[in-house]
Every structure is written in C-alpha cells, then in structure tokens.
Amino acid sequence: MPLRYKSTTDDDVNINIEVIQREQDVYRRLRYCDGVVPCISASKTTLQLAFMENGDLPRNRPPKSLQLLWLREISRTLARIYDRCVIVADIASRNFLLASDLSICFCDFTESSIMPLGTDMETVDDNGYSVQTDIGLLGAVIYEIVTGERCQFDLFKDLPLVA
SUPFAM superfamilies of this UniProt entry (predicted)? Predict the structure, then answer.
C-alpha cells in the first residue's frame, strides 16, 4: 500500500498506485532476468521483492576483486535489461541490492521506460532518457564503487526548462 500521511491527498495516493503498477509492468518484462531482484508477488497497490540480506550498495566496501566482479555483473545485467527493451533511467548505488552471497542486483524501476519489443535500443530516446543516459549514470555508480565517494551530476542541468 502506498504511504499515506496526513497531508497526502487522494490524488497523491492514486498517482503512487499508478507508479507501483508501472513498476510492476517493468518487473513482469524483466521476469527471470539474472541480476534483477526477483518480484515475489504483486497486487493492485503492492510489490513484494525478494529479501536481499546484505542491503544496498552504499553500505558495503568490498575488496577490489569483488568490486570488479560487481562491475562486470551490473554491466551484463544492464545489457540483459536492454535486450528486454527497458530503459532504467534511475541507475544509482541505492538501487543495487546485495544478496547473502554478495551477488549484486538491480532494483527500483519506478522511473523506467518499457519500450516495444524489437525497439532499436541504441537509438531510442524516451523524454531524454536513453541507453546513453543510463550508461552515464552507470559511470557514476562505477566511480562510487571504486572510490567510495558519490559522484553526483545532473544529466539535464544545461537544458532549458519547458513551460
């Protein structure tokens, strides 16, 4: 169920439910995709993912050998996600979870775009999000894994605002 505070309106709740349902669609498209946190169950207002015992990426500073393994795995997983015609759009260290064996998995697809199957993922652009923007965001995650320091940037900071 979406969070509801005293100040939350019914419209806010409906928007949050739509976001949950869109994310469910992404998880359905990515079902059985190695390197993505498995979706255990879903209802109209909920999404239950597999428990990842070791939490998120920022809480872990492994040895370089494991870092290199993670970098290979997240790159391969991203390629598998593109094979299923999904643009992730929110690649950040907080959206990688670690299983009990320290394998790394993508999660949080609330900002993702599902493209029609067969889409040329190298050229598609969905409101400014593309494979190229995903790779830029992945670069920031790689930097954080290697250095332990967050690399923040705004892909759209120099673009004029559209009214």
Answer: Protein kinase-like (PK-like)
